[in-house]
Fold these 2 entries.
Entry 1:
Amino acid sequence: MKVDVHTHVFHDKIAEKACNQLLEHYGYPLTADGTAGTLLKMMDRAGIDKSFVLSAATNPDQVIPANTWAMTLGKNERFIPFGTIHPSFTGWEAEFDRLEKNGIKGIKIHPDFQGFNLDSEIMFPLYEAMQNRFAVLFHVGDVPPPDKNPSSPQKLARVLENFPDLTCIAAHLGGYLHWDWVIDSYKGKDIFIDTSSSLNFISDTQLKKILNSFPEESILFGSDYPINDPNKEIELLKKRAGFSDDRIEKIMEQGMSVFERLKSKLPDNHV
């Protein structure tokens, strides 16, 4: 089963607005309209069976509707939706229960858009509750240097030191534009990294060092649809990394191993 672990899908009514916001932030032209229908067509062209679909509430009022939307997407068997949470959202314990009861097995954290530092202690109770319960995909990195940016490899490393039972994916090869710090920060950590929104920006030296420093089973394919076309990202990964078709296929088949790792950490009586 080939999996894209990093996509975003918006309701048809707000897809254009959401895509414009992404364009404004990153200054990088998008390849698609952000709708579910277009993602499914691109998945078919790329031979992708399932996609993780991510969202991040930028304020506490967005948490419930965003999670309800995720549950709706989950009705399509080709989508694996992740929920969202916000540190200012009250009643997160009940919301975690609602996510779990509706089959949501992952949560996306995007400190840069959500307005907090990734390693802020305001998040510690939530991280504690996510351990052994949800897979967590973290956005990591941006233009500001690690000490100035809300997210960074160093900040995620601190979280994992405090919460070693988090089943964690660090997006963008561990930290968008923070690649010089990825290897040292995550050394000895139990962590996945995805390839999303990195291949057009990372140097050959940085790319080879990172890919050679992580266990192959910890590297996951991510496209960052609608910013990128999954099929073009597969071809770019082949070209930039020099991977064979068999190795690319193996990386794409590893996405579901995130949940296998999560399952292995669950208590025996977990439902």
Note: The first strand starts at residue 3 and ends at 7.
Entry 2:
Amino acid sequence: MKRLLVVFAALALVGLFASAVSAGSPVRLLVNGREIEPDVPPQLINGRVVAPVRWVAAALGADVTWEEATRTVRVNVPQLESLERQITLLHNALAPTSPREAVEKWATGVKTRNGALQYAVLSPELKEKMRPEYEECGWVTGVSSPWVERCEITRETKKKDGAWECEVRFEMMASTGPAGSYTARVTVKQYERHWFVAQIMRDDALEHLQEQVTKFLTEMYGKHYRLLKTEVSCLSHSAAASGVEALFSTTVAHVPAYKEPEQWPVQQGRIKFLEENRGRLTPEQVRRVEEKIDFWNRELRQYIDKPDDANMLLKVTAGLDIMGGIRPETIKFYYEDPAGAYLPFTPDEWPAFKSSEELIKQGYEEMRRLVE
């Protein structure tokens, strides 16, 4: 099945470029930049490019045969078979026989930006999770500047489950001189006779998560409150093959950003409803709306200019990239409900995240339902 992927990927690329061609124009077939002129020209049919597989496969060095009895097209890529065997043998030769060897080879791969070497010493689970990222960067990791000038294993610890955890310190250098350092915690596990890297996490990953929690709280309270102080502390954390989970205790000292109760957006919506609909409401309906507005005026007046603390436990999960750093797009927040369970944090469900316009509408709709 893998052998077919090369051919079909080429066909997909053909379709990608040819789809931009108008229906009346001839479709050119380019394979690795070389134009191919098959006996049956490619055609654009209903937005899809149809091209003869034999010509594309042959241009990629594959053999195509047709079996009439089973009505089967067989595509064979001999070169790909050879490359697969070569890679398998190289991986077998590189397979570490000790925890330290596994970490040293991985660290050498990081230092030389050799993603193929890093990948070769990963555990099967980590290989599966990380392969797309290695492929995306073309198997060349890191950046050209700053680069890793020196790496050193600074600590080795055997864990209760038989795995080993090593700390690797990377010294960075740029054209202007030293560019700082960072430490990665690398967990190595044994698979049959060999040892492979099962987990990678930079020491600053938790610091990054804590910064994201602070940013999250600022976004949550910053729209309608004036923040006085924000405190975030990590209570616990755990890491899996390619992800991390942490529990944070948070405190946000704040005061409302509005000087008068009538300026609070939800209250503005209640007042707006009364002003726009007073003429068509019955005296009883007017009384009910006015009572609700007065109630909230009294409630809100208790909080105006009075500091308050909001305390919350937040659980945060995130994926780790091939270097053990946090992948920002994977960060997810969970809040603790009254029963002690952690539920996904959906900003749309929390008034603090809503805009003033949304809260005004909320107050307006609340009064409309009150008089129905």
Note: The first helix runs from residue 2 to 18.
